[in-house]
Write a structure and sequence with these properties.
The complex is a heterodimer of chains A (71) and B (703). Chain A has 71 residues and is an alpha+beta fold. Chain A has one domain: Roll (SH3 type barrels), CATH 2.30.30.90. In chain A, 18% of the residues lie in helices and 38% in strands. Chain A contains 2 helices and 5 strands. A 5-stranded antiparallel β-sheet of chain A has the order 4-3-2-1-5. In chain A, a hairpin with a 2-residue loop joins β3 and β4. The longest helix of chain A has 9 residues. The radius of gyration of chain A is 11 Å and the shape is globular. The model of chain A has no long low-confidence stretch (mean pLDDT 92). With 703 residues, chain B is α/β, with parallel strands linked by helices. Chain B has 32 helices and 12 strands. In chain B, strands 2-3-4-1-5-6-8 form a 7-stranded mixed β-sheet, sandwiched between helices. The longest helix of chain B is centred in the middle third of the chain and has 42 residues. Chain B is elongated. The mean pLDDT of chain B is 85. Classes of the chains: A alpha+beta (71), B alpha/beta (703). Chains A and B meet through α1 and β4 of A and α3, α10, α11, α15 and β12 of B.
């Protein structure tokens, strides 16, 4: 399951990444394997999305969210 | 000023770093630029409790020493390069107590460079509110560095922080946070030996970043490159491994020192605000209401101070003319330099007002929500969610708007925004449009409510927005991006704006504009003044002689002066140039008189009206638009006897003003923001070509 498939309010735990470059940036921002994520909201036009991770809110585009594989 | 100790402030964005900087240094700051990049270098001075003085440099906020943007790359260069003028003796790293986990990543990186570090634990009050208990002593013991709880907003703990700075060590005592050597042991050892450094993490960073570091010699660079190949170093994999190791360290650390009392997950205030501000309907309604308010304020609030400034300069000019001996030098000083200075100062109210709003939008956290909401639309045309504010600000003035594009982190998005912002109908175009529209568009109502002239003006405004979007979309395919476009952005919690920061930002931006763009504007103003006041050969003497003849002496002194001025302008260098470019602009329907106006308009578009007034010998400026209009309306072509300003000519001229880059201030500010003359040159070129084509097409369609 990809992060981009979650609906608002749903949770998941990061398993792995499909894009190396993106994963480096995401991990720096606290989005690491084993970390729990909750989708907080989706932008009015459907993209990007906002997630809660490591105690703060992070926004990312759907395309970027689709590189995060959840357990 | 020579300081006893140099301190660098380092931290994540949105941690209150600028607030702490302002609190530490007060107004004792100066802004410069880091060489070669458009990052403001903010340096201030602070006196320590022991009487020594400290130089404080505010480094750009970053999440990691691995840069994602040009701004962020400054941080490692300053920290690592011992020969850098700003290489600090001590780093004060600001951590947001409510968000320690992510904040600590940068801390561990800086600490492992083995620079003496002090931690300023900011927002302790917020942490208490969020039911976080932090064992500060335990935290300090584990890290092995002083940890000072502060609240920069409430100016709490600042004295303690200054004490800690005064007592700081010259050498770093913090233990390693991770075993750096295990990431790439052979490569690190080889780089250490090659460059002659002890610190393994420094060596690893050099391996990652050597290509962009200016302080390495080409030889060193090549050597590191060779070593990387030899040991099959994979930069991204190594970074990933390092980040995971660092977060393991951080999790252990926080497990022992931070406890969050378990309460039911109640909805935070920030979340509740977001439900409204990023709502499908209200979100956009509120956003456009805010934009309209900003737009109105730039117009309305700046009007009075702007007229005050220009009246003040007019007064200064007449006073100087009165007291200084008449002569070319006085004229140069008063009509060239002082007039140029006036052209610079008059922008200050608009800049200050726009930056007050931008500072509030950023401080409160609303700007990131704007980006969040607008990203999808703006991305389609090659812009960024944050481009909305400069574009709307462009309706007032392109100068502050282009300065405000700094909020856009992505290089390509920022460049495109800078390139298209001057297309938006700015307030300087308004007098030109009003004059030309009133000349050729009948003042009639359509369907009772719409006035034709009003409709024409509205059309020009909308047209400018459309053209900016189209050009942005084209540039999206032309510009090659040096960085991969991604959008991983923190949405900070909503906070009240800090009014001190707002004032600082208004002052900083105005000062930067006056000092840096001002030079170019004054230079252009002087050049244009010389061109309009001097002519080749003996032309001017002959004009003076001609009007001394008896037949002219009967005319009223006022009208005689105007006739002389008009005659002189025709024979000045500007007039000669106007004649010279006539063949080029004739296909657009323009004659040499309009040519002169096009040239002088380069100082600022609104000069068009004044130039027209001089050419048609009316005693008029922008206030006297009616008499200029009458003269222009009755102007006849000398050969054909037809009116000069037909619908086709007026529309063609409006198209020219819509597209052409006739604004020295904008050119100067684009140079300041891009640090490369190629950008303003390219912008000038594309806009002139567009202006020419649009005018040509318009003229020939309507003729």
């Amino acid at each position: 399951m990809k992060l981009s498939q979650l609906k608002v309010g749903e949770r998941g735990t990061v398993k792995e990444f499909t894009d190396l470059e993106m994963s480096v940036k995401l991990m720096e921002m606290g989005c690491l394997p084993g970390e729990e994520i909750r989708v907080e909201r989706i932008a009015p036009l459907g993209d990007p999305i906002a997630i809660n991770v490591a105690g703060y809110q992070l926004s990312l585009r759907k395309r970027e969210a689709s590189t995060i594989i959840l357990m | 000023m020579k300081a006893d100790i140099r301190i660098a402030l380092v931290g994540n964005p949105n941690t209150g770093k600028s607030t702490l900087f302002n609190v530490l240094t007060g107004l004792n700051q100066k802004i410069g630029n880091f060489p070669g990049v458009t990052v403001d270098k903010k340096i201030g001075y602070s006196s320590l409790p022991d009487g020594r003085s400290a130089e404080v440099i505010d480094l750009p906020g970053t999440y990691s020493l691995y840069p994602k943007s040009h701004d962020e790359s400054i941080v490692f260069s300053v920290l690592a390069d011992r020969s850098n003028d700003h290489n600090p003796d001590l780093v004060v790293i600001i951590l947001d107590a409510t968000n320690l986990k992510r904040n600590l990543l940068l801390y561990t990186q800086v600490a492992d460079l083995k620079i003496p570090v002090i931690v300023a634990l900011n927002m302790m009050d917020m942490a208490k509110k969020a039911d976080l208990t932090i064992d500060v002593d335990g935290f300090a013991k584990k890290l092995g560095v002083p940890v000072i709880p502060v609240s920069a907003r409430k100016v709490e703990g600042i004295d303690k922080l200054k004490e800690a700075i005064a007592f700081s060590n010259k050498i770093a005592f913090q233990p390693d946070s991770i075993d750096v050597g295990s990431i790439a042991p052979q490569l690190i050892a080889a780089v250490q030996k090659e460059i002659g450094i002890d610190n393994p993490y420094y060596a690893l960073q050099l391996a990652h970043q050597h290509e962009t570091l200016a302080f390495l010699t080409p030889g060193q660079n090549e050597a590191i490159e060779t070593l990387e190949k030899e040991f099959a170093f994979h930069s991204q994999k190594a970074q990933g491994a390092e980040t995971i190791a660092r977060y393991n360290f951080i999790n252990d650390l926080l497990y022992d020192t931070v406890t969050k009392s378990v309460t039911a997950e109640d909805e935070t205030t920030s979340n509740r605000i977001d439900k409204i501000l990023t709502h499908k309907v209200f979100g956009f309604v509120i956003f456009f209401a805010i934009l309209m308010f900003i737009f109105q304020s730039i117009f309305a609030w700046s009007e009075y101070p702007m007229s005050l400034i220009s009246d003040g300069f007019v007064w200064a000019q007449s006073t100087l003319h009165h007291y200084l001996p008449a002569g070319p030098l006085t004229n140069l000083l008063v009509d060239g330099v002082v007039a140029g200075l006036s052209g610079v100062m008059v922008f200050i109210p608009q800049i200050a007002i726009l930056f007050a709003f931008i500072s509030i939008l950023e401080d409160t956290g609303y700007m990131s929500r704007v980006t969040f909401m607008m990203d999808k639309i703006m991305r389609k045309v090659g812009l960024n969610g944050k481009s909305v504010v400069p574009l709307i600000g462009g309706f007032a003035c392109a100068v502050p708007s282009i300065m405000s594009t700094r909020t856009i982190e992505n290089w390509k998005d920022r460049m495109i925004t800078i390139m298209v912002t001057p297309l938006i109908t700015c307030s300087a175009r308004l007098p030109v449009y009003t004059l030309l529209i009133s000349l050729v568009v009948p003042n009639k109502s359509v369907w009772w409510i719409f006035n034709m002239q009003g409709l024409a003006l509205t059309a020009m405004y909308l047209f400018s927005l459309v053209s900016a979007v189209v050009v942005a979309w084209v540039m999206k395919y032309i510009l090659k991006s040096r960085e991969r476009g991604y959008f991983i952005m923190e949405l900070p919690v909503y906070r009240m704006p800090r009014w001190g920061n707002v004032l600082h930002s208004m002052y900083d931006r105005s000062k930067a504009f006056v000092l840096q763009a001002g030079k170019v504007i004054i230079a252009v103003s002087v050049i244009l003044w010389v061109m309009a006041s001097y002519g080749p050969g003996k032309g001017f003497d002959q004009i003076d002689q001609k009007y001394k003849q008896a037949q002219y002496q009967k005319a009223a002194p006022d009208s005689l002066q105007r006739m002389i001025a008009s005659d002189k302008l025709e024979n000045s260098y500007a007039g000669v140039l106007g004649h010279a470019i006539e063949p080029v602009i004739r296909p657009l329907g323009f004659d040499w008189k309009i040519g002169i106006a096009l040239i002088t308009s380069f100082a600022a578009r609104e000069v068009f009206v004044g130039t027209m007034a001089t050419i048609y010998s009316v005693n008029g400026d922008a206030d006297n638009i009616q008499s200029v209009k009458q003269k222009m309306g009755s102007a006849k072509n000398e050969q054909t006897g037809q009116p000069v300003f037909t619908l086709a000519v007026a529309m063609s001229l409006m198209m020219f003003y819509a597209f052409a880059m006739q604004c020295a201030s904008t050119v100067a500010v684009v140079y300041r923001e891009t640090k490369n003359w190629r950008w303003p040159a390219a912008q000038f070129a594309y806009m002139t070509v567009l202006a020419y084509v649009a005018s040509f097409v318009t003229y020939h369609l309507l003729k």
